[in-house]
Amino acid sequence: MTSPLSNAQIKPRARDLGIPFEGIPGPLNAITDIKGVQVGYATVISGDSQYRQPVIRTGVTAIFPRGKTSTDSVFAAWFPLNGNGEMTGTTWVEESGFLEGPIMLTNTHSVGVVHDAVVKWQHQHDQLIDKFSLPVVAETYDGFLNDINGQHIKEQHVFQALDNAKEGAIVEGNVGGGTGMKTFGFKGGTGTASRQITAQEGGYRVGVLVQSNFGLRDQLLIAGVPVGKEITMEQQTVARTLAPKSSIIVVVATDAPLTSNQLKRLAKHAALGIARTGGIAMNSSGDIIMAFSTANPGAGGAKQQKVTIQMLANEAMDPLFAAVIYATEEAIINSLVAAETMTGAGGMTVYALPHQQVQQILKKYHRLLY
């Protein structure tokens, strides 16, 4: 079974539970608050190990910086907080300072097929720049719930994610590349959030989308509260066994006029948002961040000898640093709140974050908003 992107968010989000966060969110509190950014999913769920069927719990996420009809590249940069993971195409992003095409997220063993399918899709849609593409494809490991070695992501799923990319509100949790992921021992997956800085500070926005699949149960912090240590579940011991192969991919978008060097700085600060949730970038974790700016259209593909661009002064970047930290933190918690209990390969079950217990714990620490 595959399911496309829906524009309607029907699951509760972290703020719906009364969890407090710093900063002012954009209208959608999503990466799609950045004008032009489109997100698409293919979610692939089928099979039951009880009936000796391949158990498929996986998917693909596509993120277009300027929409799926644009070939206009964007200033970009990446930052590997811990490198036990993969994000293709980063050599050219680092060298050129630009991102050319979508960012794709999937599972560890499907990077190759997604990479090839993106090139084919770009060719079919006349999206290749100078007949050339080095797609950016990132991964996290979903092998606890998904038959990852069955390599069930196919070209059709990649095309679905690309074709279904839209603006507007996006669903979270067990969707797209985040379908089979877990976070801090609970069911995790896809999450998003955004921040709006004040008009006096420039009025810019920062949006974040995460594919969250990292952390130990007792590391989990929510609004500064040690929820992971406080929570009581019979699945505590089982959840601890889920930790070794852990990763998070963070995609940061902004409409602020930043150069690639400044975007590298922004990407580094997203790591502090991971830390605010309890992440420590473990040795076995692939924690990789990509940041891009939708400002300065036409700069990347310009043929003239000189290009005039706008650049935000370094002294004006502090509000953006705060924005990306807080948006990353909330996106991770949103991925946990939206995710639902899932049983997958080998009968393995990863349980959803118990909302009511979280509220009780936050109330105990006087951190619940209502």
Question: Secondary-structure blueprint of this entry?
Answer:
Layout: E1 2-4, E2 38-46, E3 56-64, E4 74-83, H1 90-96, E5 98-99, E6 103-107, H2 111-124, E7 136-140, H3 155-163, E8 182-183, E9 186-187, E10 189-196, E11 205-213, H4 227-230, H5 236-240, E12 246-254, H6 260-276, E13 285-293, H7 318-338, E14 342-343, E15 349-350, H8 355-364
Parallel strand pairs: 6-7, 12-13
Antiparallel strand pairs: 1-2, 2-3, 3-6, 4-5, 4-13, 8-9, 10-11, 11-12, 14-15
Helix pairs in contact: 2-3, 6-7
Mean pLDDT, rounded to whole units?
A: 94
Walk across the major sheet and give the strand order. 5-4-13-12-11-10
Instruction: Please provide the count of β strands.
Output: 15
Q: So, CATH architecture?
A: 4-Layer Sandwich
**What is the rounded distance between the termini?**
39 Å
Number of domains: 1
Indicate the radius of gyration in whole angstroms: 19 Å
Query: pLDDT under 50 segments (min length 5)?
Result: 3-7, 236-241
What is the name of the CATH topology? Answer: L-amino peptidase D-ALA esterase/amidase
Give the overall shape, derived from the CA principal axes: globular
- Total DSSP helices: 8
Strand content: 15-25%
What is the CATH class designation? Alpha Beta
Structural class: alpha+beta
Helix share, percent: 10-25%
Summarize the biggest pleated sheet: 6 strands, mixed
